[in-house]
Predict the structure.
Amino acid sequence: MSDIPVSLRRLVFERANNRCEYCGISQLGQVATFHIDHIQPVVAGGSTSPENLALACVSCSLRKGPRQNIEDPQTKAAVTIFHPRQQRWANHFRWDNTQVIGLTAIGRATVEALALNRPTMVAIRAEEVLLGRHPPP
């Protein structure tokens, strides 16, 4: 893993409003520190630059790993995983209470690949609702 300067780490956290840019969960109240994710992995030529970095909770980061292409569960077509710097979250996903709904092939595939609606995550979001932190602004 490449070293990320403190100033760049700070930029990524602030730009993301301390939220995972894939699942939307807040860093507040979480025990594990969120990861700085290389959207295009370093092993695939991705740079350690603001336009290639996203804030990711540990679960999303580990599930994403170095993958760039995933399969849309509806069409079985290969698509790219959601890219927080190049795509708007609201164009690919919507909230249904505490569930993330994929609106596009990229959205559906990302929901499945990152298991965005796994029971633990839905339970965390339900608690976040009570704390006024869900849905994200």
